[in-house]
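Reopening this one. Same input as before:
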Amino acid sequence: MYPEFEQGDAASCPIHVIEQDKAEEWIASHPKAQADWLRNSGFTGKLGESCLLPDPDGSISAVAVGFGQAPARKRGRFHLAGLASSLPEGVYHLEADEMEAQAKSEFALGWLLGQYRFDRYKASATPKARLKAPAGVDADRLTKIAAGECLTRDLINTPTSDMGPDTLAGVIHGLGKEFGAEVTEVLGDELLSQNFPLIHTVGRASTTPPRLLDMRWGKAGPALTLVGKGVCFDTGGLNLKPGASMGLMKKDMGGAATVLGLARMIMSLGLPLRLRVLIPAVENSVAGNAFRPGDVLTSRKGQTIEINNTDAEGRLVLADALAFADEEPADLILSMATLTGAARVAVGPDLAPFYTDDDSAAGKLAEAAAKVADPVWRMPFHDPYEQMIEPAIADLDNAPAGGFAGSITAALFLRRFVDTAPYMHFDIYGWQPAAAPARPKGGVGQGARAVLEALPKLLSI
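Same output, byte for byte:
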């Protein structure tokens, strides 16, 4: 079950959100006993601190939570999301008429996202405090956004033993059935007969056949195609990863997981557009038929690609999927992938770097990201680096030597496969390395909420 707001007319306890510079004034407005209690408890309105106000009968009359000062709030997001875990069981409501609508929405979404627990393999206590939807927020929209994000987290957190290409395909078929979308699948050697050679090559060494999933939803409106990297596990292939680097490779399908979470948001909200989702689902494994360093492969689009590292496989499966997407008119093609370590070195785990040649689209996305607390950062399609992905014996190099600008050269590689439609690419991490408000350690979506918020302007819907 995905998190929801409390429904019905049950009595609820108020939560007061108090800015630090207004805390003493707010405290002084209470009867002496309560004011003394707040002061003696050390409540000052500092960001995230909380205090329960008792009634004479011992029950809780209200909750005070500190909203700090503006400089402190800039150093993070969903600051109050941890409140639910600290409150006793019961129903609560937000009492913050002066709180800006955007802050109310962030509070409410943070509460929902903070309810998430991955408990498939081990029981986990969930917060028992329940929140009524704050006045003035779109509760239905927030609930559906949270459901999409929780789907993404579940998919990334599930190990490959239970989330291989076949299981991921089942998830997509399930979404299609739930929302009335059409899903088709190209499986195994059919990839060769239908001209998806790179997807087949990367996945052929696995005991679970590679496949391309194609989901279509919506009959009218602008056309949006989402492409997600679905490498369900990445050993590195014959360029085998060391053990420490392989430990988190269940998350190498984080692009597919994030795209599917975004697709769930779009479909559940009924956005007026035509949605297509393409997921190349593979395992990059080691066997006698694995592709090799030095091989030259031919893509669906006809370009030849020299393989200088079998651990740079994500861009290969995406290349065939992007070329396929580009064969059909679209108003926007958007790819998401856990593609390069270089992106993490550049911006760390919290920011989702994205690429686009459209300055207007970049501005719209950045504005939307700030509004919904889903930070993104634009990176450049730097044309002078094109020569770095052009080796001596083939059209393209999947892993340029030297190590410089790794995220940019990967993005430039992908751009070679989209000629007709506006293109945007996200090089995400898909993992929260340490618990943070509304984001427990583990799989996490990045960029999806920003894209969702920006779509009306990006596609004029």
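So the earlier flakiness isn't reproducible anymore. For the record, The first strand starts at residue 13 and ends at 19.
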